[in-house]
Fold these 4 entries.
Entry 1:
Amino acid sequence: MIISKRKIAMFSHVTVGSSNLVKSTDFYNAVSTPVGLIQRAVIPDGGPLSSCWVVEGTALPRFYVYEPFNGDPMSVGNGSMIAFLAPSQEAVKLAFSEGIEKGGTSCGKPGPRPRYGEGYFGAYILDPDGNKIHLVYRGDVIKTCDP
């Protein structure tokens, strides 16, 4: 059943857990800026403490880092990964280096990934809690003004 023909984002929000919200917030501020995201205020709603990022001027989608809601220790989802779309190859490189400086661990340095498509350029990094993050410029499917 089609509810609406309007175009909307695929996701409302994506969330990862954290064992140290201050450290994770510092890490994601470093990684998110080069890919065009800004941190937004989170209005307390009775849930766990969190930090949030969006594309400037938009309400959705959102990326959150939370202390686990149930109070149990944070754990990483094996096979889970968040891919942040970057506006250029340079943004991928910058986000990767900033993430490493803020406690991330490399699991795939920036470079072409031709097996995914001509123009696909990405890097992989684990955040301070071990969540797998992919920084990607999709030159295989988008066109930009990059020289």
Entry 2:
Amino acid sequence: MPEIDYDLEIKTGNCVRSLIDSRLLNSCHDVSSGGIALALAECCFPGILGASIKSLENINPRKDFYLFGETPARYIVSCSPQNREEVVKNITDAGISIGFEGSVGGNEITIEDYSSISLKNAHLNWMSGLKEFF
């Protein structure tokens, strides 16, 4: 179970709220249950747009931990290209690291060097869950 850094939680939450209040974000989703893989997929489903991300930091070599780890105080945010510089500045000025970067669009969900799935198949599996097993 990951350790909770309450100071980081508060700092990250305050930064995200500030970005939302400033209307700099197009979307925001917490990374909690299911880790980065599930959170990224859930970000893509409402608008039926794919996404591609790559890691900017040293990653755990265990694929399951990397994709599904539930480390606290993490969010996936998207912004317009014209807001990117200001969003990055706000995040780094708050002392928060950016673990991934990427783009929105296409018909696949891709985590570079780890996994890629068509948006259609991801959504179908997400909607049906474990139905085939019961």
Entry 3:
Amino acid sequence: MANGGNGRSFYVLDEPTTGLHMADVAKLLAGLQRLVERGDTVVVIEHDLDVVAAADCIIDLGPEGGEEGGRVVAWGPPEEIARSKDSRTAIYLKEYFRRRRWTKMKETNRIP
């Protein structure tokens, strides 16, 4: 990934945030974004909400794991998934976005 590349590579990462500090997750996201900006395709299997919320598109599989899973229950940008009635990820994303909005309002002193 660090070799420059030509923007035609396809990367698959499985739970890349496991064991990472929050600061390192931010660095990982910045690196993944650089890959996307140069034209590479990046697929990340992840549960970390910072990574999930930063995705261009989420493919949410479920509704359970194992034999009860493997079906696409929701597909689309994170904001759309947060509104899905079929996705178990939706409730977590909705809360994530609510907290993020609250934090931004606190930082800008715009709390009602």
Entry 4:
Amino acid sequence: MIDQENIVQLVGFRLGPKLFGASILNVREIIRNPRVETVDGLPDFVEGVVRIRGEVLPIVNLGRILGVKLSRIEEEKLWVLVAQSGKRNIGYIVDSVTPIIRISNRKILSAPDLILSSLRNKYIKGVCETDKGLIVIVDLEHMMLDDEIKEMERLAVE
């Protein structure tokens, strides 16, 4: 029997061939096929902005931040995870989203050095073997650096 108090629920998603997960508590919503508006002068990891219910969200290429190439970026097949980072919501482009993944806290291990050296490791919370394969758990809440968030906020005001 599984101890429900030690269960972590993750939103699973793919970037290229790699499987990632983020705590369901950090993901506000998943948006399918938003209309991304490009804005001049944005950092290279920001694809543009989206208006959702009166809020303008920066749309960030999560693959660029983690050093993983996305399979594609096609507006008609776009998946965006919205998570709070700092004081604002950020949309993260991913290749696809899986059903919710439930795992035991005890199964989450520190990420091996090989994974950490190939990804921006300060965003990696751990890894876990699942029936879908190895999942790399990322921290979307702290994904964006303070300087990057300040730059996006400055551009949003201009």
